[in-house]
Sequence to fold (802 residues):
Amino acid sequence: MNVTSVDWLPSVFIGLMGLSFLIYAILDGYDLGVGVLLPLDKPQQRDTMIYSIGPFWDANETWLVMAIGLLLIAFPKAHSIIFQALYLPTALMLAGLILRGVSFDFRTKAPSTDKHKWDYAFKFGSLLATLTQGYMLGRYITSFEDSWLSIGFSALSAICVTAGYCFIGAAWLVMKTEGELQRRAANWAKITNVLMAVGIIAVCLTNLLIDQQIMDKWLGGMQVLILIPITLLLAFTFITVHLYLDKVPMENDLGCWFPFLAAIILFIMCFCGLAYSFYPYIVPFKMTIFEAASARESLWFIFVGAAVVLPMIIGYTIFSYKVFWGKTSKLNY
Amino acid sequence: MLDAAVIANDTSFMLSRIQFAANISFHILFPTINIALCWILLFFKVRYNQTQDESWLRVYRFWVRIFALTFAIGVVSGITMSFQFGTNWPGYMETVGNIAGPLLGYEVMTAFFLEASFLSIMLFGMDRVSNRVHTIATVLVSFGTTLSAFWILSLDSWMQTPAGFEMIDGVAHVTSWMEVIFNPSMPYRLMHMLLASGLTSAFLICGISAYRLIKGDNKKSVKQALNFSVTLAAILIPLQIFVGDLHGLNTFKHQPAKVAAMEGVWETATEVPLLLFALPDQEKRENSFEIKVPNMASIILTHDPKGEIKGLNEFIDKHPPVAPVFFSFRIMIGMGVLMLLFSWLATYQFVLKKQYPPWLLKAGIAMTFSGWLATLAGWYVTEIGRQPYLVTGILRTKDAVTTTPPADIALSLTLYLVIYGFLLIAYIRTLFVMANRAVILEESNASLTGKVLVSDASKPVTTNEGVTS
Fold:
């Protein structure tokens, strides 16, 4: 096969897929985080928190279907290898996503005596989903190795990814709520901010130690210099967010969007770091995107559709956020 | 050792099949309601816009909440599907991924995002956007659900009657997208499914409305919904019988082994009788306890009393297990006949007698989920009827299965079964809880007369306590 002529399509698709995973992590990240943070003591705060994500969670979760769909469509061989290796955590994650997705609707429609049970199901389902996603990320980074070290790292990753989702969820609440709940959210954000920082450092170190290729990519030449601005930007973001959260709420709620923006920046940087480490592998060190790619005529057929449809999707996603802009109020049918 | 590996593989195969069947059977229940319910909601909304009759808005509001619940379960059970291919059926994408991938991709890109994004405006946006934008959002969600059905039925039909491709080194490559998308069975299956959705929604609305009426809910909106649903069912069921017949003829042409199983025909013959009942025995390759109508199968399938029908014995090792296909087909047809009887009788009652006798209302309640039963039975006919192939003539189901250890699959299967059983009970129970709650809601409830359709986001949100809490 003529390799040069097929070169760019797999790269475009890994880009699209990566973008979908990133958008998923940010968007479903905040609503999963809000689910995990659901307090057991204040039912009214639970209501407000769930109203704040009500109009969005469904579309947010669609990005997961999109990302997994692109993996399935563009790199079917990799999809098979990855999900057979992650069989049980995948099943658990799906169970979690199912539980939380339905709880959101059942809680207001089931008998009111059951409402708190559905709230707990929502919280537990969200937690199950974030832990398993973190665990799977850890397994992926350590190339699905069956060693205790790999499993231990994956467990750490489960906690840190959950912390990351909670951080962006708390930041979302700082932006979308007011009063006592907002102050509470600021507190949650401070704690999870620190946990997330620990997690990022742990992943970076492991990532470097795990494979000579990754070590060379980051430290093997002039590119080592790029680590300086990256580290500074990360540190700057973590510290300013922390200082800001101490002062929430500011007068006129000044900059209530700042922690959420900071969370997005952190998510993007983490994502880019991982992407740079593993490209062009889609199954770490076993299969590249070029080896896993579907036939060109099929990729081309989807590419044309994606080029037309993706801008529309982004357009009406923005429209939907504008309709539900501002501080959260009760959702009425 | 080899034997152990073979047994493990066979067990994985069995468990994976059960798991896929469980997942897709559970999932299909909810889109089957919603594909049509969404258009029906649009109808309620437009009727309200036209007449300004509050009771149409009341019907809309009651059913939009059920729509929301149904949609949520449909979405989350659908996510499971996108993982199943990789976790349990890796051979599927490896062989026909070049075709299945893009069709699934178009479903996600054109339908899922459209539905999910405008759903929130449809559900919660009534007092945030103008009435016009809200109606448009409802149209877009309806369009999205139907588009989703279009893509997935296109793929399913392609697996039944593949076209527009060539095999290169054991992998399917597309030669014509038009032929792939509009493959021979696709138009029939799509129409059959859309009508099935219409009937499922109609009987659901009919059943819940009849329940409310029996419970003493005499609001105008309940009768409006009931009259609407029985009329809809009475119109759709003859259409469905007609399209179903065309679909059967299409199957007879392209998948004769499936039809032979549906009809329980073992030996190729002319003047074939229609079996109303029989016990097919695959070991002995014959039926016992036959109750038959002479020549009728030949007439239905060939429109000639002497027409020839190919028997299962022509397709040894290439035909599906007979009993499940045979019985599922009869359940589907039986439900169809009941639907026809009920909907015409009910329409007759309400057009000429202007009221429903209580026994008829009770029959309506009994038939609340008849659409589910008929749809599931119909899907079992078509999907089990495709066996032993995953893609007719190209890929056998057992060649696509995972190497994941059986214990893992047993675990995930148990997990899914527990969750699905639990959710199914919760869903049905909640429908009736919502109906009971609506019964005690006062007709003059101020919440429904609030000017909720005024397009002014800055005004205080109209409360709707009676309905939401």
About this structure: The radius of gyration of chain B is 24 Å.
